[in-house]
Every structure is written in C-alpha cells, then in structure tokens.
Amino acid sequence: MSKRQLSLNLFVYPNGHHEAGWRYEGSEPERVLDISFYQDLAKKAEAAKFDALFFADALALPDNIRWASRFRLEPITWMAALAAVTEKIGFIGTASTTYFDPFNLARLFSSLDHLSKGRIGWNIVTTSIDYAAQNYSKDSHPVHADRYARAHEFLDVVTRLWDSWEDEAVVNDVPSGIFADDEKIHEINHIGENFRIRGPLNLPRSPQGRPVYVQAGSSPDGRAFAALHAEAIFTAHQTIESAQEFYGDIKKRAAANGRDPSQVRILPGISPYIGSTEKEANDLLDEFNDLTQLEYSLTHLRRRIGVDLSGYDLDGPVPRHLIPTEGDLTEITRFKLIVGIIDREKPTIRQLMHKLAGARGHFVFAGTPEQIADKIQSWFENGAADGFNIMPPYLPGGIEVFISEVVPILRKRGLFREDYEGNTLRSHFGLDRPKSLYSEAQRKSA
Amino acid sequence: MSKRQLSLNLFVYPNGHHEAGWRYEGSEPERVLDISFYQDLAKKAEAAKFDALFFADALALPDNIRWASRFRLEPITWMAALAAVTEKIGFIGTASTTYFDPFNLARLFSSLDHLSKGRIGWNIVTTSIDYAAQNYSKDSHPVHADRYARAHEFLDVVTRLWDSWEDEAVVNDVPSGIFADDEKIHEINHIGENFRIRGPLNLPRSPQGRPVYVQAGSSPDGRAFAALHAEAIFTAHQTIESAQEFYGDIKKRAAANGRDPSQVRILPGISPYIGSTEKEANDLLDEFNDLTQLEYSLTHLRRRIGVDLSGYDLDGPVPRHLIPTEGDLTEITRFKLIVGIIDREKPTIRQLMHKLAGARGHFVFAGTPEQIADKIQSWFENGAADGFNIMPPYLPGGIEVFISEVVPILRKRGLFREDYEGNTLRSHFGLDRPKSLYSEAQRKSA
C-alpha cells in the first residue's frame, strides 16, 4: 500500500481570502466575475494535481459591500462552467439545506456529477447568516436545532433520490426498444416533518453514485451531523491542539456510528503568506494588513463578536468585559474561536482585526516555503489533518506561488501525489463509491 | 437598415424530438448524458450562426421511461457547461415559477448571464405536469389561475432583483478602497401575496441587464402573460393560419400594453425530415414511425387527450365521441391542437400517434431542403413567424443535415445572417438592453 497522501483543495474566494486582497497590486479585481479568470485557476490547480476547488456561498449581500467585493458567481453554475474545461480536478460547492428545495438540489447536483463525469462534492450548510431569511419570504431565520432537523431529513431525501435509479437501470437496448429497466427505478415515497416527495429523480444514477458529502460546521450539532454523513470536513483552527481535538473527536464519533474513519477526510483551512525569508513573509502579511479599511474591519468584527468597538482606542486592548458570553447562536463556533484568540494572545483591537482580515478566523501562516511545508506536514502526521483547504490571500498570484514553491517540497517528501490515480473526486479523496440503497446487493446485505 | 432576419434556435431534446429517435441508426443514445456530445452540438450550431440553443424541462420522470430516454441534464447546469466552450451563441433554459424560489432563480440566471457574458434566456414556465407537485411537498399541483398569479409576482420580483444593482454600481477604485457605490445598490423590499423579499441580489447587474424573457404557453393566461413580459415566444402550430392568428394576436396585445411589437420575437417549432427528393423525405419519416413502440405512443396519447385507446382498432378512426370536450386544464392548448388535427385530418389512431411521435404536436414537415426553406420563408414573410425553433428528429445527424442543406438556402435568399453582429443573445434577437428600474435615468423618464 502506498504512503498516506495529503489532500489539497484550492478554496476560491473573490479576489482571494484577505479582506483587502482586491487592493493588492498582484490582484485582478476587475475580473471578479470573469469566468476565464477562474477557468485559468482551475487549470493551474489541476496541473498541480490538487484534489478540488472549494466554493463557499452566502445567500444575501453583506452590508459592507462598499469596501470589498463580497459577492461571487453562484457556485452550482460556476462549477459547471469550470468542469467543462477540466478533466480531473474536483469541485466542491456550497448549497443550503435551509433555503434550497431537495428535489431541485438533488437534480442540480446529479446533473453536475453527470456533466463533470464524477467530480462533484456538495458542501452541506444550514446557512448561518440570519438576514438570508429576508430574501426567502421567511419571517425569521430558523433556529439552529430546526435547521439541523431539516438538514437531517434533507440528507435522507436527497440520498434516496440519488439512489432511486440503480446503477444498471439504463438498458439502452435499441433492437428490443427497451430504454430502461423500470423495475430498477424506484419511487422514494418519503413522508416526513419537512418534506413529502415521491420520486424517483428524473436522472439516472450519477458517476459517483452520489456527490461527495462535505460539511463545514463545527458546533455540537454540526459535529454530530458530520460524523453521520460527511465524507470530507472543512474546519477552522488556530492551533494544532484545537485541530487534533476536532480530528480525534470526529473520527471517534464516525467509528461509533459504524463508519470507517478513513472515509471521513478532515481538511482545515490555511491561508499562507509566502516569502523567501521569514521576514519577507511577515512583511507581505503587514503589507496586506496596511491595505485594510477600518470601516470594513470594524463591521466584520462587530458581526463576529456581537459588539461595536468603533469608539475604542484601536491600539488598546480588546475590552473583554463587553463581549457577550455567548454570541449569536448561528455562528457560535467561530465566535468561540475568536474569543479564544483574545484570551490566548491578548491582542489590541487593531491586531485582532488584522488577525481576522486574513481569513475570517482560519489559520493564517507567514513563512518560507519550507516552513509552510513543515507546518502542513506536522498537522498531517500528528492527527490534526488529512489535508488542507488552501486559502490564498489574493488571486491568482497567491495560489501560483504556493504551487510553484510549496507543492514541490510536499511532493519531494512523498506527502502529495505526482499524478492523479483516478478520474473522480471520490478517487482523489480515497472514498468508496456507495451502492444504491435500492440495489439488490445492498438490500441483501442490509 | 438591413433586411429583416430570421432567428434560428436549435431545440435540444434527448436523442432528438422523435419519440423513437434514440433507436434510429444515426443516433447516439449511449451519449444522452455525455456533455461532450452537447458541446459538439453547440459548437456546430454556433458555427452555423444560430441564435440560441433551447432547452425544455420536466420536474418529474414520466411513466413511460421504459420505452424512451425521457430525461435530460438539468438545464441551468447544462447551459453553464455549454457556455464555457462557446463564445457567441445564446442559451435559453426552462425553469418553473411554480417550483423554484425567486431568489435562487434570480441568482442562478444572473450567474449564468455573467459567466456566458450575456448569452442567456429564461424560458418562463408555470409547469403543466401535475405529478410534479408530488416531488415538491405539495398536496396538489396549483390550478392554472394560481400558477399564473404567482408567475406574475415572480416576474416582478426577479426583475427587481436583476435591476437592484445599477449598471454603474461597481466602482472598483483601488486607491480609495471603495469597491462599490452602495447608493446604487437597492433593496427591493417586496411584500406580496406569494413572496416577501428584501434584496438586493448578491450579484451585480449582468451583461444583458436581465436574461432574455422567453415564454411558451399559448393559453389565454399564457398569451396575456407573454404580451406583458415575453421577449421571445416559442409556440406550436400545425398550420400557417393558426400561426398567423397567434402572431397577430400577440403583437397586437403587446402594442396595447405599450410595448414595441418588434421587441417580441415569435418562434414556432418545426421538426424537419429532409430528403433529396420528397419521396426520400417521406420515407425517412416512415422509417422513424416504424421504430415507435405502441406502449409508449398509447401512453403519450392518453396523457394528451385524456382517454385510453389501447382497446381500439389502431387502423380504424379515432373514436371522437370518447374524447372529453375539455382536457386537463393544465395542458388545454395542446389538447385543442390535437383535437384540431383529429377534426381536420380524420386520422386513424395509428396515424394520429405517428403525427404526435415526431414532435409532440409541433409542426412536422418532410421535404427537400428547398421545400423546407420555402415553408420557413413563407411563414416568415406572411406574418406567422420571426424565426423558428428547429426540432431535429434525432441527434446529431438531424441538425447537421439542416445546417448543411437548408441554412445555405436561407442565407442565399438573404433571410439568415452570414455572421453574428454582436456577442449577446439580445443582440442576436434584436432586443434592447433594458435600463435598471432603479437607475436615475429610468426614474426620471418614468
């Protein structure tokens, strides 16, 4: 058996992850909606043998749009247009179980998996920003528990829809005139709290059977959900200890659910600032932080910790006593992470804003290519990660330098593939292709 | 001013429009979900300077899947993957106002229009098949009037969302750090019977301002809706007289609504069977009809006219007295069209099934390339059509022969473009780019 291999995703964010990335000289902010810009990125990541591109999403425009390009192409259409010009790399797109309809979502992702020939993952979210509700005719954003209850039922339904055609259902027998064996196409006849759906899906089973199930919530409900359903988990940690705790907990919960823990890939985010010396890397990070805009940063901070610090001395300490003991429950995990930074590092308000400017609470690391490769290797080999979501501060340069400087080191150390072994995202992640719940073999073994 | 020009769309249907198209020797049924098959088609249609590819949709699997490939890739993802490999041709995709959420639909189509750089049209449907409701947690399919009431409100909402960023809202000024002029980004604050939506959309205004509004219903409600909103109309007629009545009625209604009738393109469907002689063309049509399967054809007929004729002599007359005076109201227009065929042509049951096998009630015409060009020219020049949706009986050959044999004749006669004049679907159709409802100029002129 070959050595355990890292997964590397490129997390595509408009103009890069640093909130002022669009102002950096190597950035191309005028191309933020130009599909050819992302097609070039996808081809570069594929040439470097990355597992996948990852796309976040938001269902409402944030109120600080004046200061940065905080919008994006819609992930489902975006992935389709990138899959069309690539052959191997995967695409993981975010879509909400709270604000999508399960039949529509099942169809969109099945179609994506068909047209990409098996390279799609679904990042399953319940949507944390509460003002999304106002774009969806709802009186209020559902509370955490209700969102997760709906998400569990949603997963059950779409899984059955994706499985509703057995793999052998399409016969395509021209002489007899029989196109499909309709005994292998199943109504799902779901009747639940949130949904009533007959099925079958109006598409045959897709190349991967189902898209890869990806998840990114780290709340207690999120962890329970991930341990049941997720095949890859995107997660934010500031320290290896925190990542190790998460990694161990998820793998243990998955095993307790009767799952093979190797079938759950854990992928923390890392935003790398790369210099030929440590000083050069730190100077680069400073250069980005000098481009931040106070109004944007303060708004972002207020949204994350629930208190407006605009009247305070920015170079003084964070007024810890003003911060509520519990933030808005919809983003409690990120709130706790930020409070952890405050308690551990005692930053000034400005330092805290800069800390969050890089990647909204994800791990920001400035160093030489060797230092970054060391950090990745250390987390990978010490029970903290199966791979990483790479979050470049700006685009396209931020990922180009990672590919040209860091990837060769990882490859030399035997940690990252020389070439793809297969053609699907499941293959890149080392995940099994699931049998249909309705297949005879599956019914017998159940 | 140059001579009035035809529009030509390729209406892409799985394996072609004839219900037995997948069994024809030139067909490639094993590629019905292979995106490269459709990418080749799109490139061929673009090389021939077609206006657009047109995609129908259905939100549930029909019950005669055993006998034909009556499913398709999902149109939104499908269009994105085709736009990615073409530069000029447009794409018109069907999506339902009854079973989509307006914010999700507005975003998906805005994203499509951005990534295609202005080549997208939306075929607005309210969904006619009633069993779709069972895939969407509804007790029953809403009645015609309720569907159209929702559709009107839906159109109002998505129009405002697409207009919610004025064209000049993105400033992208790196030195000042101002990314967007937020005074040019507007909440829509819609509160209606069906929807409550704050907005703005989380994407800037798209290249065409709004996707092209396309419509395909010919019921009284459908005509009223089209005359208010549609910029292109796809319609089914068996005779030039019927098409002329429709054409005249719609243009008159549009004018009565204060619209320029030239801004409403009327595009009947035509399914051409092409032979080097008239006999060869008719033999080709017979060859297709010989491939039909009785079970499929009878099921289709039952669904269209509301009565099961499987116990009757197929070579005897259609038992006219058994047919209800009014069909299921959700498809009343197509029902009336079929009753019209029965009363006008007095076909046997088998002849009627063959008539519908070609294109489900659309105009099927067998002839030489000259005869087909004559027919197109006659409808175009006599107030029956501004262009056509070409519905090839099988793929890819059915469109290849149209392009190689019929298009050059139309071009020689000065009826069809030698090359594209612009890069957007609005340009191909000769449609204006609408101003944003929220723009200052628009507000002043209103």
CATH superfamily of chain A: Luciferase-like domain
Oligomeric state, counting identical vs distinct chains: homodimer
The count of domains of chain A is 1
The geometry of chain A reads as: globular
Spans of at least 5 consecutive residues with low confidence of chain A: none
Written account of the structure:
Chains A, B: Pfam families: Bac_luciferase. Chains A, B: InterPro entries: Diverse_substr_monoxygenases, Luciferase-like_dom, Luciferase-like_sf, NTA_MOA. Two copies of one chain form a homodimer. Chain A is of the alpha/beta class and 446 residues long. Chain A has a single domain, classed as TIM Barrel. Helices cover 39% and strands 14% of the residues of chain A. Chain A has 14 helices and 13 strands. Chain A has an eight-stranded parallel beta barrel with strand order 1-2-3-4-9-10-11-13, surrounded by seven helices. The longest helix of chain A has 20 residues, at 144-163. Chain A is globular.
